[in-house]
Amino acid sequence: MSAPADIAIEGRAPKTLAQAARERRDIVSGQVMDEAGLLRFVAGPDGGVTPDLARKLPGRGLWVAADRASVDAAVKKGLFSRAAKTKLTADPGLSDQVEALLLRRLLDGLGLAKRAGELISGFEKVAATLNAGKAAWLIEAADGAADGRRKISNVARKSPNPPEVFGLFTAEELGLALGAENVIHTAFLAGRGADRWTADVRRLAGFRPLLPESWREEKPSEAGGT
């Protein structure tokens, strides 16, 4: 019996079948890695390369490390065609496409988390959540006022469980996703939902910083973390 097409664990015996199912070979570096740090692509019906962020599309998976340099290298060196053993056309802007899809996936994920009761919004409620050490993420509107960001960041740093900070969505984008208006401060409660969201954030981090460029001009105490 041959191994599943997606599982490229050649030359070594995995400890368990579950471990094998989580590991793939990066077509750029040739290294076998946990799929959490990889992006899956498949060949589209038109011979193009299609990102499969949810890892559900049919066809053989073509796995690439989740960072811009790796995706760009796979495109420029024709590595998708080599791995698929057939001619594929990869868009030169594939890494930008992946970044946009990850951002959309993260925003949709916040909407799902809101409906599941895993998000807390509003300065006072978020501050209370931070003080209790219950937040995995502090999500700040990219266009929020620096003064408010400084105040909530100070609370976050004093939390018994300081959260990570994400600041790429505007107040309008957050409002549309969460069904509210003027969403500036949001806490994502620690738990499985936050763990799933974090996995996508980690992949996005390979393509862009998680905080706006403008925040870097602020003093460290105002920037909401690193």
Structure, described:
The chain is elongated. It has 226 residues and is of the alpha+beta class. It has helices spanning 17-22, 68-76, 79-84, 94-115, 123-131, 146-157, 171-178, 192-204, and strands at residues 23-25, 32-34, 38-43, 49-51, 62-65, 119-121, 135-140, 164-166, 185-189. Helix 4 (94-115) crosses helix 7 and helix 4 (94-115) packs antiparallel against helix 8 (192-204). The chain is built from eight helices and nine strands.
Mean pLDDT: 89
Beta-strand content estimate: 15-25%
Biggest sheet layout: 4 strands, mixed
- Helix % is 25-40%
Shape: elongated
Taken in chain order, the helices and strands follow as HEEEEEHHHEHEHEHEH
Tell me the distance between the termini: 49 Å
Q: Give, in spatial order, the strands making up the sheet with the most strands.
A: 6-9-7-8
What does the radius of gyration come to? 20 Å
Low-confidence stretches are: 1-15, 220-226
Structural class call reads alpha+beta
Task: Give me the count of strands.
Answer: 9
Oligomer: single chain
Count of separate DSSP helical elements: 8
Question: What attributes characterize this protein structure?
Answer:
alpha+beta, 16% strand, 226 residues, 3-stranded antiparallel sheet
Quick summary:
The chain is α+β, with helices and mostly antiparallel strands and 226 residues long. The protein has helices spanning 17-22, 68-76, 79-84, 94-115, 123-131, 146-157, 171-178, 192-204, and strands at 23-25, 32-34, 38-43, 49-51, 62-65, 119-121, 135-140, 164-166, 185-189. It has eight helices and nine strands.
